């Protein structure tokens, strides 16, 4: 079932499940709680999604879609900035996302820790989300004419992921800003080659 064609009841289930999965953890949240909070029966939940595992996949795809739109909006709103500046704007996107949508860290990393089965539908969504971000960074680096876009994209992805973890744990104050400064140095080194 495509998430764009959900019934109103299915939308409520997905909205409630997303909030509960992120706030409490996937395994801590049962279908009884989701159905009750969404005001539907368990039968409706299963009729719309088939299983809790399928619902988890929908939740992660929905969250990924919102994250990608957020990144595109922040980077796209920059307009006339230099192409390499788009790479740094991804850090700004992460910073604003963490303040509003991501106080418990990356939903995908959290879910990955709870879904050890590599064949789980959620694991495929998680892997695709991380590959998308790496590829998006590589594309931005290519557009900026940087000499090693794939290598730079990998390094920036590591900085973004590390900043997400350190920031959500409040281990490093201003983690995203610090990661952005390191990223600026890496970008500058490539520009000076």
Automatic annotation (TrEMBL):
InterPro entries: Homeodomain-like_sf, HTH_TetR, Tet_transcr_reg_TetR-rel_C_sf. The keyword Transcription regulation applies. Keywords: DNA-binding, Transcription, Transcription regulation. Residues 7-67 form the HTH tetR-type domain. Residues 30-49 bind DNA. One of its GO terms (molecular function) is DNA binding. SUPFAM superfamilies: Homeodomain-like (SSF46689), Tetracyclin repressor-like, C-terminal domain (SSF48498). This is TetR family transcriptional regulator. It comes from Amycolatopsis albispora.
């Amino acid at each position: 079932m495509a998430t764009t064609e959900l019934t109103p009841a299915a939308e409520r289930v997905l909205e409630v499940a997303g909030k509960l999965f992120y706030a409490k953890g996937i395994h801590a949240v049962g279908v009884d709680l989701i159905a009750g909070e969404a005001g539907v029966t368990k039968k409706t939940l299963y009729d719309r999604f088939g299983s809790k595992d399928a619902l988890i996949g929908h939740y992660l795809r929905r969250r990924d879609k919102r994250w990608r739109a957020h990144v595109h909006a922040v980077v796209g709103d920059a307009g006339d900035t230099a192409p390499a500046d788009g790479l740094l704007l991804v850090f700004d996107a992460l910073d604003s996302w963490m303040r509003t949508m991501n106080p418990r860290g990356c939903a995908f990393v959290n879910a990955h820790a709870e879904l050890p089965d590599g064949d789980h539908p959620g694991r495929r969504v998680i892997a695709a989300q991380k590959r998308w971000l790496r590829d998006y960074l590589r594309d931005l680096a290519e557009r900026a004419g940087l000499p090693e876009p794939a290598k730079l994209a990998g390094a920036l992805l590591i900085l973004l992921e590390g900043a997400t973890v350190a920031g959500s744990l409040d281990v490093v104050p201003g983690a995203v800003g610090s990661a952005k400064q390191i990223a600026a140095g890496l970008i500058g080194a490539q520009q000076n080659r």
